[in-house]
Write a structure and sequence with these properties.
The protein is built from 4 helices and 17 strands. The protein is mainly beta.
Length: about 300
């Protein structure tokens, strides 16, 4: 949904780029990042309305994202689409690649698995930090009765490593900056937010779950390979309507068109009332292909080739 911002705080997790594979672990209520070789006053939330919607909790979404791409979580965000559908967006570092995942909060369907190179200026020091769960607890201590919609770990020149938390309450979004070393609240602010208002009216009181029902499909994400042989985790789309193709099949169809290329992005979309996959393939340093594939039968509806300098 369209947002009207009154303040802006950058939200991007950063992680050191190295030849080694990053590891993620929690020990003694601390987030351990390693390599292998001002309080705001808020108004109490209104009484929760009854909602029949059930969706993944943020902790469940983090677990699902890390199951698909077993790397280091950079950011997790709950998002409400214009049509009212609920999604999570996750950013993960794995094997020196940055993965942007987007998936349904209600059934786990993977809509996007996009990868890119980790920029050098995104590095943060390896070390021990409070966990995402602890950061959420601190944020909710500032906005009692709120809903944590986003958590991002990032490095700032003036604050060091911090968590940037966003919390919805009534029709406002509160931003809380938390010291990732000790959990101290460094600053906070708020803004009017249409998603927060929608959540309060339609989802407050909805049931959140740690896991979604098993649809009978298993993840195809491979065991993390050695750092010297990076590979792309294969993310499969959960069970779909009979006759539709999977995300992996769409990837295979596009790859067959550019045998020497590498698939960099796969997205599941609805265009003009039709379900399609949009697949991007990079060949060499300069050529980029885009394929639009009919999700019902695998036919290629559109092809585009661009010189990317």
């Amino acid at each position: 949904m369209k947002r009207t911002k009154m303040i802006s705080i950058a939200a991007a997790l950063v992680l050191a780029v190295s030849a080694s594979v990053p590891a993620f672990a929690a020990a003694n209520d601390r987030l351990v990042v390693s390599y292998t070789t001002n309080t705001s006053t808020t108004t109490a939330a209104p009484a929760a309305q009854t909602s029949s919607v059930t969706f993944l909790s943020m902790k469940g979404a983090m677990d699902l994202a890390l199951k698909e791409v077993p790397g280091v979580l950079k950011s997790i965000e709950f998002d409400i689409e214009d049509n009212g559908s609920l999604r999570y967006k996750a950013e993960i570092h794995y094997n020196n690649k940055e993965y942007d995942l987007e998936f349904s909060a209600t059934d786990g369907t993977i809509y996007q698995n996009k990868q890119d190179t980790i920029e050098r200026d995104e590095a943060i020091p390896a070390g021990s930090y409070i966990t995402y769960e602890k950061a959420a607890e601190v944020a909710l201590g500032q906005v009692k009765g709120g809903f944590v919609s986003k958590l991002t770990l990032e490095s700032r020149w003036n604050d060091g490593v911090v968590y940037d938390a966003e919390v919805w309450l009534n029709d406002a979004e509160y931003t809380i900056v938390i010291d990732a070393d000790n959990g101290t609240v460094l600053r906070s602010g708020w803004e009017k937010e249409s998603d927060a208002s929608y959540y309060t009216k339609n989802l407050a009181g909805a049931q959140t779950v740690a896991t979604l029902p098993d649809k009978g499909t298993s993840s195809t994400t491979t065991t993390p390979p050695a750092a010297s042989t990076p590979s792309t985790p294969q993310v499969s789309k959960p069970t779909q309507t009979t006759g539709s193709i999977t995300m992996d099949k769409a990837r295979e169809i596009a790859q067959a068109q550019v045998p020497n290329g590498r698939v960099t992005d796969v997205e599941y979309e609805y265009e003009h009332g039709r379900a399609v996959y949009e697949v991007e393939v990079k060949e060499g340093y300069y050529w980029e292909y885009k394929f639009v594939i009919d999700a019902s039968n695998g036919s290629i509806l559109f092809t585009e080739k661009e010189y990317d300098d």
